[in-house]
Each structure stands twice: as structure tokens, then as C-alpha cells.
């Protein structure tokens, strides 16, 4: 899948340095976000941080996709409404626009579709789409923002998720050391990291972890060579299709910012990147790596941390006397 | 208490306009924060947003003193560890440096002392001071930041709360319309708001709500003329002293940004400012205000919303392999 993408980006960028450095590599540099509708992105940012989209008034998108923490919550599985223990590790929202689909099982085709899921999930934000819209409609500043961006008077739930998705599309992390290396700065990564990258390619990690997101473009079986031992009951795509061949098929996670998005795998069972690399090599590639090899690959993975979100803390518009009250304890 | 303060600020500022406009008023304009140790403030900001100071790894200072929402959580009482229902309304952290003491009952003398409370409260962040320090010591970037700011190698809990307090001291909200009016811009507030301010003074609200914070400088009995009806068992200062005369004695809350810090009172029982004004006038002053009078005072209170926090979302340093893991579910 990455070759057409590479060609496309090669044509779009057209830079000699870029062509020379990156065109032969299966990983592509992250492109900075191009913001075409700043008002929509600002609205989406407010909504992303607004806990009033939850029943409790306490949980926002940012609670589990914390932009101060690599776009994740750094927990094995998330905490939801009424301290519900979530079933699966919260994937980073950073660079999620590059994924072929959303959620570990890909059940949402788009970021917009994804954004509606947690709001109405009883174990996450515990609300309903209608009630979330009722809250937003009661807030004059939101009314004005939606009218400005979407042109009509009512606030529609599709516009809510559209704005959140537009904000999320800006959450890309360019300028990682590895990307600078791809673009020709050979001093941007250490010799150990460069060795790690060669190993990452030669042993086959790159077969799934490639492209701009270094993953996110395919579904693969967790435990291809050797079964993955876990107490987590998630079955991946089979949970949607019921088909045996889809058991343990999960979306390949992005490795962008992987040093920030611990703990790892869909069950969040591994906290250290070195352990995660060892497990992946054994279970997916049938290969036992030496300690040195693991260290080299970890050094490479550490170079995938890009520029983190860089914006002002959003200030949320206040509720009005008409705003339905949050209900955290009933 | 406010007259010496006024004199002090008058001497410090020395501006003719300020002196002429504000010296005769019992409310003082909020002074912008003067940041003398930027590194300490930045460190404190990270700590304020860092959920790793809680047992769950999910709750930070900002969870209940949300700087996107007037420095409060806009809930009657807060949600704590394991979805514990808190006993009292979370006061705004904005302008809290101006308070004579911290918490509704004033049990912490300083912001620094206050900052330690929620971290080790089983129903709030559910951690211990020692465990919080263990987490911070395991994070190389925090080690470096503490060494830079405090000069020694170990991280001490007193330094943690000192840095958080230093950040909180910057959370002042100057430039409210009412402050611009105080400073001579007579068009900064509406005629209705100006009438409301005159009423606020003439009926006696200003006896307790005065000074720079428009409150925060004294303790008063909730229900001075008529008892306050509430299901909340909090007894205010009497909870500390056991003395009958301290029953229902609470710190007078600041009215700065009061339009953002609903719901109101220590039990968070009133969501609308107009209701809160009506209750206060009846219970504290023995006065039943007309609808117009309430509207005027609310219009005045709305002019107390100042500049909200204006900084970049902090990016937190990642944990290391040595970092103790959060324990949200045990």
C-alpha cells in the first residue's frame, strides 16, 4: 500500500532532497497539517476538550486521548463513566487521520464516525448523541460557532463529529528525528538508531509498519507465528464479523510517537518498548532478537517522536441557565 | 481588610488614573501576574496537568480545577478516585492566591499546603505524597527540571507543592470589564451593571465581597439572617475546631469569574447566578430583592470575568521503565 502513497507524495512535494532521501524508503515523513478551515478546527478543539459531551460532565475526548501525553491515557485500558474499566487500550489520536479505519477492529470508517462512539458508549462518556446536542444548543457561544462554520441555526450531531474530526486531522506530528533523517539530515539519528532501522526493515517489521504513520494501514493477526497470551477477551475483527478467520485480527497500530504511547498492544499488557519489540519479533516474525538488536530497534523507534500538539489550552464557553445539568452520580 | 490593601496598591502603582478611579472603591482591579521564576512556573504547570500524581494515573489538579472552565469542574461536588462523590464544591483555582486561606474551611494556610491535600485524599487523587514523589523521581525530564529549579538531586514533596503553588499564583484574571471601569473606562460596563454595582454596595454584599478577589479575605456564617437549607453535612470551620460558634462558617468565595464557576455555594446546589444572588440577599442580608434588582446585580457580576488562562497546553515528560505503574482498578 505504501508504494502508491510514496509516488503520490513524491509528485506532490517534488523536492530533490526529499526524492533522493525518502523515495527509496518504506516509511514516509509526516506532512504538517494544512488547515483550510481554522474556525472549524477551533470549534473541534473546544469540543474535544469539553466534558459536557459526557453524562457526568467530567469526561472529554481528551480524558483518554490526552494531548499532553502522546494522545493517549497511558493506562492499559481506559477509565469511563462511573469508573468503568474499559475493554481495550485507548489508541493515540495523534496521526490517527492516516489510519485506514478507526478503533482496533476498524469498526469506524472515518474519524468522524469514530468520534460518535465514545460519547454514547455507556462505559465511556455514557451520554447519548441527542443529549450531547441538547447541551451544545443551550450554549450561546457554541450556537454562534456552529452557525459560523456550518451555516444553519440548529446544531446537528453530524456537525459535532465533523468538527471534532477536523481538529483531529490537525493532530499530526511532523519533524521527528527519523523524518529529518529521511529528508537528508544524516545526523538527525544516532548510529544505533540507524542500525535499528536497518534491522526493522531486514527482519520484516516494516511489512506492516510502513507509510507515513508507520502502521495503521492494514489489519493483521496478533500472534501470526505464535499465539498471543492475554486475559483480554477482545477478538478483533471477529467481534464484528463472527468469522473464525478474523479472530485476533487487529488494525496495525501506528508507531509514530510510540515512546509516548505505553502501555502497548490492544490489552496494554506491556509497559516497556523493549519488551514489546521482543514480543512482536517472536510472535509475528518467529524471531528471537538479541538484547542488542532489541536496543537498536528501540533506539530507532525513539526517533519517531515528532512535534507534539502546539496550541493554547482552549477556553470553553460557559453553560447557560438552559443547559441540561451533568449527572455524574445517577 | 481592603483599605490597607488599597493603600498599598495605590502606592505601588502610583498611576493618576488608577488612583482617581479606583481609590474610592472597595473592589480593586486584579493585577497581572509578575512571573519571577519562569522555570518554576513551567514545572508547576506540568505538575498541575499531570495525572500521574494520582493513584489511577487519571486525575490531575486540572480535573477538578479545570482551567478551560473557569478553574472549576462545574459540578456540585467533584468526582474523585474510583468515582468517589466529593463532599463539597470544588472552588476555582483562579485568583486563589488572593485568598486568606485555602479550602472552604480554610484548613490550609497557603496554596502550597493546599496542593498536597487532594493528592493524598483517598476520595480525590487517592495517592500518597511518597508515591507521587517516587513517580516523579523515575522520570528523567522531571529530575532535570527539579534540579534546575531547586538545585538538588532528589525531588522533595515540598518542592512539588511549591512548584504547583508558583504556577497557581500566575492564575490571576486581570482585565475584567469591571476592572477597566474601575481604571477609568466608563464605557466598559453597561448602565445596568453599574446600577447593579451600586446596589451591591448599598445593600451590603460588599461588606464580605471586597478587595481584589471580591471575596476570599474573611470567613462568614452561611445563613447569617436565615439558616441555609442543605442536605450537605459540611459544617465549615466547626469541622476543624468543634466549636459551636464556627458552625457553617465558610470562607467567603471570590466572585471573580463567578459567571464561569457555577454551580454555587459550598454544596453546589444553585446553578443560576440569579438564584444565588436571591439566596444570598435573603439569608445573609435579610433582604428580598426584586427581579430587576437581581438582574442588575447579575449584570454587575458578569463584568467580573477577566482574562482566562492563556498558555500552551503543557506536554508532559514520558514515564520511564522505572516509573511505578498507575493502579486505577485496585
From TrEMBL, chains A, B:
Localization in the cell: Periplasm
Cofactor note: Binds 2 heme groups.
Signal is among the record's keywords: yes
InterPro entries: Cyt_c-like_dom, Cyt_c-like_dom_sf, Cytochrome_c_Peroxidase/MauG, Di-haem_cyt_c_peroxidsae, MauG/Cytc_peroxidase
Record's keyword annotation contains Heme: yes
Signal peptide (from-to): 1-22
Chain positions recorded as heme c 1 binding sites: 61, 64-65, 81
Name under which the protein is recorded: C-type cytochrome
Modification note: Binds 2 heme groups per subunit.
Positions contributing to heme c 2 binding: 205, 208-209, 280
Cofactor or coenzyme needed: heme
Main localization (coarse): periplasm
MF terms (GO), sorted A to Z: cytochrome-c peroxidase activity; electron transfer activity; heme binding; metal ion binding
PANTHER family: CYTOCHROME C PEROXIDASE-RELATED
Domain of life: Bacteria
Alphabetical UniProt keywords: Electron transport, Heme, Iron, Metal-binding, Oxidoreductase, Periplasm, Peroxidase, Signal, Transport
SUPFAM superfamilies: Cytochrome c
Source organism: Pseudomonas proteolytica
Gene3D superfamilies from the UniProt entry: Cytochrome c-like domain (1.10.760.10)
GO cellular component, one term: periplasmic space
Cross-referenced Pfam families: CCP_MauG, Cytochrom_C
Ranges of residues in domain Cytochrome c: 39-147, 191-305
Amino acid at each position: 500500500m505504501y508504494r502508491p502513497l510514496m509516488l503520490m507524495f513524491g509528485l506532490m512535494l517534488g523536492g530533490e532532497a526529499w526524492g533522493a532521501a525518502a523515495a527509496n524508503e518504506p516509511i514516509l515523513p509526516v506532512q504538517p497539517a494544512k488547515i483550510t478551515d481554522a474556525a472549524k478546527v477551533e470549534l473541534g478543539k473546544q469540543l474535544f476538550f469539553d466534558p459536557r459531551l459526557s453524562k457526568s460532565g467530567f469526561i472529554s475526548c481528551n480524558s483518554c486521548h490526552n494531548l499532553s501525553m502522546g494522545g493517549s491515557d497511558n493506562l492499559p485500558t481506559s477509565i469511563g463513566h462511573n469508573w468503568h474499566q474499559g475493554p481495550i487500550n485507548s489508541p493515540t489520536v495523534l496521526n490517527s487521520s492516516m489510519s485506514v479505519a478507526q478503533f482496533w477492529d476498524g469498526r469506524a470508517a472515518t474519524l468522524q464516525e469514530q468520534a460518535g462512539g465514545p460519547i454514547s458508549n455507556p462505559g465511556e462518556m455514557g451520554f447519548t448523541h441527542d443529549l450531547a446536542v441538547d447541551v451544545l444548543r443551550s450554549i450561546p457561544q457554541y450556537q454562534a460557532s456552529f452557525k459560523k462554520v456550518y451555516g444553519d441555526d440548529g446544531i446537528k450531531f453530524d456537525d459535532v463529529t465533523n468538527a471534532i474530526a477536523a481538529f483531529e486531522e490537525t493532530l499530526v506530528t511532523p519533524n521527528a528525528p527519523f523524518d529529518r533523517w529521511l529528508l537528508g539530515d544524516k545526523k538527525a539519528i544516532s548510529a544505533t538508531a540507524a542500525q535499528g532501522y536497518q534491522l526493522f526493515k531486514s527482519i520484516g517489521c516494516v511489512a506492516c509498519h510502513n507509510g507515513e504513520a508507520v502502521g495503521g494501514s492494514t489489519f493483521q493477526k496478533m500472534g501470526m507465528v505464535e499465539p498471543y497470551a492475554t486475559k483480554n477477551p477482545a477478538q478483533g475483527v471477529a467481534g464484528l464479523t463472527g468469522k473464525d478467520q478474523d479472530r485476533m485480527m487487529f488494525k496495525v497500530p501506528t508507531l509514530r510517537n510510540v515512546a509516548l504511547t505505553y502501555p502497548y498492544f490492544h490489552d496494554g499488557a506491556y509497559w516497556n518498548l523493549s519488551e514489546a519489540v521482543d514480543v512482536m519479533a517472536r510472535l509475528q516474525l518467529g524471531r528471537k532478537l538479541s538484547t542488542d538488536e532489541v536496543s537498536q530497534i528501540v533506539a530507532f523507534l525513539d526517533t519517531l517522536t515528532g512535534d507534539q500538539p502546539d496550541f493554547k489550552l482552549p477556553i470553553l464557553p460557559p453553560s447557560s441557565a438552559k443547559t441540561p445539568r451533568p449527572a455524574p452520580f445517577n
